[in-house]
Amino acid sequence: MTGIVFADEREARPFLDLSGASPVSNVPYELYSVAQPPLMIAVSGMGKVAAALATQVLIREQGIHRIVLGGACGALVDDPMYAPGKIFRISLASEGEPGPGIPDVSTRCEPTLWTQLPPATLVTLERPVFDDRRRQELAGYGELVDMEGAVVARVAAMYHVPCTIIKGITDFAGDGHRRMLQDNLTKVSSAVARTIWEGLHQHAPSRFKA
């Protein structure tokens, strides 16, 4: 069975509606199921710890053998290719600059699914950026930034479970871009939902059977 992780309700809602998902539980996370293809969906809550724990719950308690993380991200590079609305498949996810207590750990994501999407590298932080100077510093470590991806990939790798990350850009992670994120979140989340749902059915259906 495949497990789908979203950070919050606004990111998850388009996929839940599109898939016809049914509620299963709200403890310890909001969990939903889909009969065909067999899916378990977790709405983890935002941030590294919440996303890591939800991924572990899916793998250890729900018998998940493949993880897909969907959601929004910011762009760290100034290039039209990374404009709001663009959707990417993450090839490599890290937690940014190594430092005291922060190991230099990067995790490669599943490379063979959703191959129609352009690949990108992802930096995962505990807090949103929205700072031009910080954005410039982080651009040396990846093209996109979020708050969950690297830890989801890392936990999945610990259990030898393949992980795919599909991210849609909502903003440029710069000064004053919180409003841009909010303005674009629903549209981008809908596009990510369609991309994941279509891929589950079309690109490699044999991989998503129970």
Description:
A hairpin with a 4-residue loop joins β3 (30-34) and β4 (39-43). Strands 5-9-8-6-10 form a five-stranded mixed β-barrel. The protein has helices at residues 9-19, 48-62, 132-138, 149-158, 178-202, and strands at 2-6, 22-25, 30-34, 39-43, 66-75, 87-94, 106-108, 119-124, 144-146, 163-171. α1 packs parallel to α5 and α2 runs parallel beside α4 (149-158). It contains five helices and ten strands. It has one domain: Nucleoside phosphorylase domain (Rossmann fold, 3-Layer(aba) Sandwich).
In which order are the strands of the major sheet placed?
5-9-8-6-10
Q: Round the Cα radius of gyration to an integer and report it.
A: 16 Å
- CATH topology: the name is Rossmann fold
pLDDT below 50 for ≥5 consecutive residues: which ranges? none
The beta-strand count equals: 10
Helix proportion: 25-40%
Give the mean pLDDT. 91
Second CATH tier, the architecture: 3-Layer(aba) Sandwich
* Bulk shape: globular
Give me the CATH superfamily.
Nucleoside phosphorylase domain
User: In the residues, how many domains can be counted?
Assistant: 1
Total helix count? 5
Distance between the termini: 5 Å
Q: How would a textbook summarize the main sheet? A: 5 strands, mixed, barrel
- In percent terms, what proportion of residues is strand? 25-35%
CATH class: Alpha Beta
Structural class designation: alpha/beta
Order of helical and strand elements: EHEEEHEEEEHEHEH
